[in-house]
């Protein structure tokens, strides 16, 4: 009897500690949402109150939509991350298929090259990439689409190595019998890839798409290099500008953070299983 | 049979071409070019080189004389210790605790992981408001408890703490999930056998859980120290250009500042090379200390 009591006490302590950490991740978000509905003076004097009655205001949101063009930034971010995610899956999928199924002389060299690609941080490639794209005339232009392309291309390259490592790992485990059957039916390698391999690899493709999308969506470094005018800003570049130019407009900052965080949280709640798997996939395998 | 399908090697190159073209043009070539640039004199992004530096290794000499660079390296090393102790350490404790409970494990997993999904840039703005001197969440909270003096969290004496705490906090959930996955792979029978032998809870953790998690922890540590080298977004938003007075430089933010604000492109390239070399060295060190073991 005594022993049982001891266990339930320690379980209680465990729950208290775990909930304390959970509080540190939930409360700040809750706090910023509350404060996005207050004006500046209330944020710095009365930030714990629930915004009702006189405290409540929508002016921060009005500013976010009218003055800083958050919708355009959203569109740019989604275009960039969406194209990156699709291109990474397609190119990495094709390369992984070739690396797993074909036997050829340079195979090991190419696998090493893929792994080496993961060792180059973006810091060590960005300056020459900028110079190269400048010589092609796709940076420092007023064209929205060209500047989006100038961000999309390096982001695709940056995600490819990791994607190939994950996809080759998965494809190695696929049984070859299905491909043999398709071959007997007269399918060439391209039909085999798109009609046999792609459907079988779907779960891994989802993983790769999710991490390429989120990494591009959250990237500030590359995007602040290439997106220079307000019309071209992605979400992260816009946030960078707001901190530099509107650093004391606390209401606007709270509203912008809320507008950026809330949709992500909603998507996360629905897709959490896949998102968590996607973002930790490569890590567990090594 | 399988060999028959893939005997014709021609399609092979079509499959490989797009991915390797991208990597050649956007990774390998720029990486080599960056090394070349570090010996040149370049005074603006996308400007042509004015020729070799004189002497050609002058940027590398500058690295050792530059006080800000020393701060950046020291801060980055501190950041590594913070990620090891603060991210992986806290994650191990939380994972071991969650392993002991029956209800709510999934809830904690969801809640702990979600800061990683949010961009560090947005979190930077959030923490700017939280640590605001006059007066953010922390100072208002302290006031509720009777503090009379406001603390300037971005002041020199607190700056490193204020910068590193959010970085640490954001990624705890990442290592937590990796460790939980590792914990779930440990067979229940081992625990049953040990409790029949009379092992205490603490002994079970010490002699079964931690040794079996060794390789997973090793992976986490390598990711944590190399991750510390790549930290950029959050410090840049909270402490732009190493403020106050260059106290908060990290290798990443200093490289960005040299490129975008000072315009010393060749020196920035040299800093980028330092980042690569540091990354290789520290992951080697971690791997040697915590050598992967087979059980």
TrEMBL record, chain A:
Stored CDD domains: TM_PBP2 (cd06261)
Coiled-coil spans in chain: none
Keyword terms: Cell membrane, Membrane, Transmembrane, Transmembrane helix, Transport
Keyword Ribosomal protein: no
Membrane topology: Multi-pass membrane protein
Principal subcellular localization: membrane
Protein name: Raffinose/stachyose/melibiose transport system permease protein
Organism from which the protein derives: Murimonas intestini
TrEMBL record, chain B:
Protein name listed in UniProt: Carbohydrate ABC transporter membrane protein 1 (CUT1 family)
Primary localization: membrane
Subcellular location: Cell membrane
One Pfam family, short name: BPD_transp_1
Superkingdom to which the source organism belongs: Bacteria
Swiss-Prot/TrEMBL keywords: Cell membrane, Membrane, Transmembrane, Transmembrane helix, Transport
Matches recorded under SUPFAM superfamilies: MetI-like (SSF161098)
